C-alpha cells in the first residue's frame, strides 16, 4: 500500500525537507487589509514580521478551504492508496476539520486525518515520522497508532513577549491577557485539550526560558531518546544561543531550530519562543 503524507503550512517544515521526504503541504493564509498571502508560498516569516511592524491592525488568518483539500486529495488519489493528513490543533483552527470533511467527499482513496493538538515543528515531527514509516511500507492504521503513541509523550511550552495578539485573536482568554498586560509578565503557555492556556505566570523572559528548560530537563533526564525543537518569532540569534546552551546540557537529545511563521506569528507576536519535544 502506498500512503501519502499531507500536512499544513503551520508545521513550518523547510521546503527542501518536505521535498526530500515527499510530504505534501497545504497552506494557510494571512490577510493584511484586502491582500491575502499563502504562508510558506507567497509570504515567508521574515517578510511577515517586517510587514506586521508597519501595520496598525492585527492581520487575519484563514484556513484552507474544503475545496482546496478536495483538490489535493483527488490529485494524490491518482498515485496513492491512502492519505494521512496531519494538522494543527483543532482547538485553534478549523484546518483539521477541513481535512475530515474533504476526506469524506473524495472517492477512491482512504483519508486518515490526524489532529496534532499542537502546531509548528512538533506537528512537523509527526509528519516526518509518518513519512518515514510510509516509506518503509507500514500501513496507515499502524502509522496512525504510532502517531497517537507519540502524542501521549509529546510536550510543548512557549512564551510570548506580549499577550495582546493572543487576546485580540481570541486564542487566549481576555482575563488572562489583561492580567499579563497589567503585571508585565511573560507567561509560559501550553496546549491543554487542544487550546492554548497559561501554564505559569513568570515575570521576565529570562526566567520564563529557564522554567521551560527546567520542564524539558524533567523529561530529558529519564533517559528516553528525545527529539526537540527550539522555535522563535524573528529572534534567530537568541534562539541559536538557547539551542547551543541546550545542546551542551543535553548532548543525547537531537535538537532542531525552527520558527513561528506568519499564521502562528500573527497570534503569538514577534519575540515569542517555544520548546517542544517527543521521543525519537
TrEMBL record:
UniProt signal peptide: none
Segments passing through the bilayer: none
InterPro entries: DegV, DegV_C, DegV_domain_contain
Keywords, ordered alphabetically: Lipid-binding
Pfam family membership, one: DegV
Keyword Nucleotidyltransferase appears in the UniProt entry: no
PANTHER family the record matches: DEGV DOMAIN-CONTAINING PROTEIN DR_1986-RELATED, FATTY ACID-BINDING PROTEIN TM_1468
Name of the protein: DegV family protein
Species this protein is from: Pallidibacillus thermolactis
